């Protein structure tokens, strides 16, 4: 019990001295896809960021589903100083989806499944004031998906012939935007 109490005191002491921002992606909000996150200091030039992005669109055009949720925890290295200038980050996280793959947009298939991503982010922080900053970023990497393939025209059953889960791995851009960040 004493060890847990000591660890809690150390953790909250470190957190009380760190800079923490809550973030909202203005670019994805234009498409009604919320992307919110938090970023906190973990070292002299490093931060830890975690964000969640989700799309609740049943369909874009009446036929093609576009529902997904993704969690992206990331460690970032800032070249100048934290929250100012260029940075690079490494991330990995899970996702779930019911959507039509980018290379299937001209057919009647969609996928329903889950996956994970491993990648990098490159970004730039612009300080607007002591409390606000803009985080402009883009990222991508490897995505591995496990899914069942279905028809979006009402045809029953699966289009894929996989016994359990169909698998798909590809290199993709999977994040980007302009985060509006507020310092707590």
Describe the overall structure.
The chain is mostly beta strands and 184 residues long. It is built from two helices and eight strands, in the order αβαβββββββ. The protein has an eight-stranded antiparallel barrel with strand order 1-2-3-4-5-6-7-8. A hairpin with a 4-residue loop joins β6 and β7. The two termini are 31 Å apart.
* Low-confidence region ranges: none
First-residue to last-residue Cα separation: 31 Å
The rounded Rg comes to: 20 Å
SS field, number of helical segments: 2
% residues in beta strands:
over 45%
Let me know the average pLDDT. 89
Helix content: 10-25%
Give a short account of the largest sheet.
8 strands, antiparallel, barrel
The rough form would be described as elongated
Could you give the count of β-strands? 8
Structural class, from secondary structure content? mainly beta
Q: What are the defining features of this structure?
A:
single chain; 184 residues; mainly beta; eight-stranded antiparallel beta barrel
In short:
The chain is mostly beta strands. It contains 2 helices and 8 strands; from the N terminus they run H-E-H-E-E-E-E-E-E-E. An 8-stranded antiparallel barrel has the order 1-2-3-4-5-6-7-8.
Give a topology summary.
Blueprint: H1 2-17, E1 20-25, H2 26-29, E2 35-41, E3 46-57, E4 66-78, E5 85-99, E6 109-127, E7 132-151, E8 166-183
Antiparallel strand pairs: 1-2, 1-8, 2-3, 3-4, 4-5, 5-6, 6-7, 7-8
């Amino acid at each position: 019990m004493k060890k847990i109490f000591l660890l809690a005191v150390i953790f909250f002491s470190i957190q009380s001295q760190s800079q923490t921002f809550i973030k909202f992606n203005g670019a994805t909000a234009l498409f009604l896809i919320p992307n919110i996150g938090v970023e906190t200091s973990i070292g002299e030039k490093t931060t830890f960021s975690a964000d969640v992005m989700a799309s609740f669109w049943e369909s874009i055009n009446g036929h093609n589903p576009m529902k997904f949720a993704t969690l992206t925890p990331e460690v970032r290295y800032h070249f100048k100083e934290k929250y100012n200038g260029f940075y690079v980050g490494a991330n990995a996280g899970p996702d779930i989806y019911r959507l039509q793959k980018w290379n299937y947009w001209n057919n009647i298939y969609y996928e329903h499944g889950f996956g994970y991503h491993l990648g990098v982010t490159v970004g730039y922080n612009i300080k607007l004031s002591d409390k606000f900053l803009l985080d402009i970023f883009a990222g991508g990497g490897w995505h591995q998906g496990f899914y069942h393939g279905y028809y979006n025209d009402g045809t029953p059953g699966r289009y894929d012939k996989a016994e359990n889960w169909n698998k798909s791995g590809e290199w993709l851009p999977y994040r980007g935007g302009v985060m509006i960040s507020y310092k707590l």
